[in-house]
């Protein structure tokens, strides 16, 4: 990194930078050497930053019209939809923005899983990411409660009741969370407060996430350590900025499709019925992005163990860098891992599907098998695979396979020798 | 540094830290406790319900402390079914006699002990209640028979004020 010898050109710049080296930071960010083989799966970091800013800006504007009170919340949301200038647009962006945020974060996470981005020396980036993901789920859950519809109310009831599974103190904790004997106005006001706070916590963690990223630098599709700066890198600006910008445009087309053509397709019709503590909707489902974990919760017939399984399914990700014993990062060079990776993707999608279905009969059986496989993948397959798998030879630099025309080294070397 | 001085300093460190910790805890506790039910929530402790219109085989649902309470006037068959169940068949063994002092009247919180949904009347494999959220089946005494819920539906404190009025809480 060229930070240390950077000096602004202008006198004023130098004067300012000596007192607060913001220009050095800006220079670091523009010159930041990036592997030149980053593909479009690497553009989701930028897309996620966009999602976070969008949620904060639309959230702030919605908060100017929303009333956090059990008697008025539902009506104030309808007021936003019908009376407030462009209220419908801002709310639809915010509501669908949450889904887009999760769509992007899942792609981002699965990209890391495929290319081994969580491995040494990037464990801290990964763990910060998991914390951000947990906070995102908390923010999304509390945000879903604010319109005070039937799904809001019963979703809040079910999720807060998860804590009642804790032996001895569980009931006390639930009462404390509610501020009463059921989900009611005190619950709504505190959820609104926390929903407002969490995005800013996420913003802070994102800064740490990027800071931690800039220490070792980006992983890349071949997953090897590279010299920085070198022939294997390009400066972040303009190369990555343009690529990220193009990907963001594509993403915004999808985003806009949902906002303008299918704004309620990801929501649930029951949430347009005002909260009623006397009647539970016939079929309670969380938002789509929480369904795999919901399926895991329901697949265990014991209350406490169900909650433990669901939390473990998320927290197991935090120790992933130590569960995966393979020294090779990228799945490109791990023929067996690559297959198990796609099985895991399918497994999570199946869990998501059965999470949306009633917990009975065949669905329950599938959920149980898929839950068992999920844990098997992380606790057995990954640790064993690191010792058993015969990996393909990795290239010495990014340039090597590129010159040979194949990411697979053997083929690349063959081609090179033919050229010679 | 002599040994005596080190000990004196250790004592000061420990004492300062201890006082600091107590002070911090004293400040943190109000911040935590403010989230517990406040005086106005606690004040809504009891509700009186007129049950004169309730005929056997029907259930009245009333709101108490923000939660639904089921008041079921049970039929002869329901009572018999509840009373003949063997204790060893129950997940959370409780005698029907203890749950319904007057066998005709079953009063309980209409809250599934799994994750707090409201179970549906006259549904499920045991002719009692069925929770649609995660599939818990309750019998005609509101006892958990099948599914993820760990306990029977809770019987709150209640009494008959007169022949037609139940006071809950």
Please tag this protein with its features.
heterodimer; A: 420 residues; mainly alpha; two-stranded antiparallel ribbon; B: 169 residues; alpha+beta; four-stranded antiparallel sheet
Largest sheet of chain B: 4 strands, antiparallel
Low-confidence stretches of chain B: none
Profile the largest sheet of chain A: 2 strands, antiparallel
Number of strands of chain A: 2
* Shape, principal axes of CA atoms of chain A: globular
Note down, in words, how this protein is organized.
The complex is a heterodimer of chains A (420) and B (169). Chain A is mainly α. In chain A, 65% of the residues lie in helices and 1% in strands. In chain A, strands 1-2 form a two-stranded antiparallel ribbon. Chain B has 169 residues and is α+β, with helices and mostly antiparallel strands. In chain B, 28% of the residues lie in helices and 25% in strands. Chain B has helices spanning 3-33, 39-43, 76-83, 96-99, and strands spanning 47-50, 58-64, 67-73, 105-109, 120-121, 129-131, 136-138, 144-146, 158-162, 165-168. Chain B has a four-stranded antiparallel β-sheet, with no helix packed on it. A three-stranded antiparallel β-sheet of chain B has the order 1-10-9, with no helix packed on it. Chain B is elongated. At the A-B interface, helix 7, helix 8 and helix 12 of A face loops of B.
Short description:
The complex is a heterodimer of chains A (420) and B (169). In chain A, 65% of the residues lie in helices and 1% in strands.
What layout of secondary structure does this protein have?
The complex is a heterodimer of chains A (420) and B (169).
Chain A: H1 11-19, H2 22-31, E1 33-35, H3 44-63, H4 73-82, H5 87-115, H6 123-145, H7 150-161, H8 170-178, H9 185-214, E2 233-235, H10 236-261, H11 291-299, H12 303-315, H13 320-323, H14 335-356, H15 361-388, H16 399-404, H17 409-419
Antiparallel strand pairs in A: 1-2
Chain B: H1 3-33, H2 39-43, E1 47-50, E2 58-64, E3 67-73, H3 76-83, H4 96-99, E4 105-109, E5 120-121, E6 129-131, E7 136-138, E8 144-146, E9 158-162, E10 165-168
Antiparallel strand pairs in B: 1-10, 2-3, 3-4, 5-6, 6-7, 7-8, 9-10
């Amino acid at each position: 990194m060229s930070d240390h010898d950077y000096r602004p050109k202008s006198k004023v710049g130098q004067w300012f930078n000596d007192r607060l080296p913001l220009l050095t930071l800006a220079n670091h960010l523009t010159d930041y050497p990036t592997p030149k083989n980053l593909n479009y799966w690497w553009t989701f970091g930028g897309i996620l930053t966009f999602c976070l800013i969008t949620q904060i800006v639309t959230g702030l504007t919605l908060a100017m019209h929303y009333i956090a009170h059990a008697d008025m919340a539902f009506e104030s949301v309808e007021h936003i939809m019908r009376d407030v200038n462009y209220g419908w647009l801002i709310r639809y962006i915010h509501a669908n923005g949450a889904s887009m945020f999760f769509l992007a974060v899942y792609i981002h996470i699965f990209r890391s899983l495929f290319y081994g981005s969580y491995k040494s020396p990037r464990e801290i980036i990964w763990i910060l990411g998991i914390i951000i993901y947990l906070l995102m789920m908390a923010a999304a859950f509390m945000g879903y409660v604010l319109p005070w519809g039937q799904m809001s109310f019963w979703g809040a009831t079910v999720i807060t009741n998860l804590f009642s599974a804790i032996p001895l103190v569980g009931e006390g904790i639930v009462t404390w969370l509610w501020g009463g004997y059921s989900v009611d106005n005190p619950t709504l006001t505190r959820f609104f407060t926390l929903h407002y706070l969490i995005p800013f916590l996420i913003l802070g963690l994102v800064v740490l996430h990027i800071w931690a990223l800039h220490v070792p630098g980006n992983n890349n599709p071949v997953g090897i350590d590279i010299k920085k700066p070198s022939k294997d890198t390009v400066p972040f600006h303009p190369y990555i900025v343009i690529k990220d910008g193009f990907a963001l445009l594509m993403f915004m087309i999808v985003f806009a499709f949902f906002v303008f053509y299918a704004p309620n397709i990801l929501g649930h019709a029951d949430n347009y019925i005002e909260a009623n503590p006397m009647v539970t909707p016939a079929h309670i489902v969380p938002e789509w992005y929480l369904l795999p974990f919901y399926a895991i919760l329901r697949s265990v017939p014991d209350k406490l163990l169900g909650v433990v399984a669901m939390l473990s399914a998320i927290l197991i990700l935090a120790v992933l860098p130590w569960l995966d014993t393979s020294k090779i990062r990228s799945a490109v060079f791990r023929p067996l891992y690559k297959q198990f990776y796609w099985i895991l993707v399918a497994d999570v999608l199946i869990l998501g599907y059965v999470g949306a279905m009633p917990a009975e009969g065949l669905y329950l059986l599938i959920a149980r098998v898929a839950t068992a496989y999920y844990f098997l993948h992380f606790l057995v397959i990954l640790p064993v695979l690191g010792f058993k798998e015969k990996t393909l030879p990795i290239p010495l630099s990014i340039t090597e396979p590129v010159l040979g025309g194949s990411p697979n080294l053997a083929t690349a070397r063959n081609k090179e020798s033919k050229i010679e | 540094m002599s040994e005596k001085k080190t000990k004196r300093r250790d004592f000061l460190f420990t004492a300062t830290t201890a006082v600091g910790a107590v002070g911090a805890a004293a400040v943190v506790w109000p911040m935590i406790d403010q989230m517990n039910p406040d005086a106005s929530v606690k004040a809504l402790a009891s509700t009186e319900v007129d049950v004169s219109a309730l005929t056997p085989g029907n259930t009245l649902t009333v709101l108490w402390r923000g939660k639904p309470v089921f008041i079921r006037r049970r039929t002869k068959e329901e009572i018999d079914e509840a009373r003949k169940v063997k204790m060893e068949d129950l997940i959370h063994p409780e005698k029907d006699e203890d749950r319904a002092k007057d066998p005709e009247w079953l009063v309980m919180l209409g809250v599934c002990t799994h994750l707090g949904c409201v179970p549906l009347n006259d549904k499920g494999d045991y002719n009692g209640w069925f929770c649609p959220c995660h599939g818990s089946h309750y019998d005609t005494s509101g006892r958990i028979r099948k599914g993820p819920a760990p306990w029977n539906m809770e019987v709150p404190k209640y009494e008959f004020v007169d022949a037609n009025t139940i006071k809950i809480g």
